[in-house]
Specification:
The complex is a heterodimer of chains A (about 110) and B (about 110). With about 110 residues, chain A is mostly beta strands. In chain A, about 0% of the residues lie in helices and about 50% in strands. In chain A, the strands form 2 sheets. In chain A, strands 2, 4, 5, 6, 9, 10 and 11 form a 7-stranded mixed beta sheet that branches. The relative contact order of chain A is 0.33. In chain B, strands 2, 4, 5, 9, 10 and 11 form a 6-stranded mixed beta sheet that branches. A 5-stranded antiparallel beta sheet of chain B has the order 1-3-8-7-6, with no helix packed on it. Classes of the chains: A mainly beta (about 110), B mainly beta (about 110). The interface between A and B is medium-sized, with 23 and 21 residues.
Amino acid sequence: NAGVTQTPKFRVLKTGQSMTLLCAQDMNHEYMYWYRQDPGMGLRLIHYSVGEGTTAKGEVPDGYNVSRLKKQNFLLGLESAAPSQTSVYFCASRSGGYSNQPQHFGDGTRLSIL
Amino acid sequence: ILNVEQSPQSLHVQEGDSTNFTCSFPSSNFYALHWYRWETAKSPEALFVMTLNGDEKKKGRISATLNTKEGYSYLYIKGSQPEDSATYLCARMNSGGYQKVTFGTGTKLQVIP
């Protein structure tokens, strides 16, 4: 009963390094999302996908790229990490279309950029 | 209201007290409102999905109401317990397009034993 799984759970990077965060869901959900959570800011949408092979920008997309090559996976990439990207990142998924289903969240990835 | 706003930002109540907080949102192009419970060091978990004006939902001691015409929802907790301590998030889903979801910044509840 995995739901939404995020890897890694923690990571420390140096400025300028690159990395990819992986989100995997086993619920056959169409929609997937990447959020960042910063103190006092709530959840802010970085990028989202409405289906395999599609991606779109959210509120705060700069400095991030995403890919959805398989329906179950949504990858978030940082090409050149900056200290401003220190945050907790959450992935979420939900059924597509006009469904009344809420989002299901992963446990988060805590990322520190030095 | 242009964004999803929650009040108060934080709240301390004594064990056994009842409490409530508010989520305000734009009423135009409304499709659904979600309430989530977010415990520290965990991920948000859905409490309620509400769509119709006048909707009332209940789960144990927690209940919620929805007014889509004026753009607000209330979350009520009856007889608060320490395990209710968490941040309560609301998220508005709009109609049309990809059903954009906008989260409020949450109400952090601390129940004092």
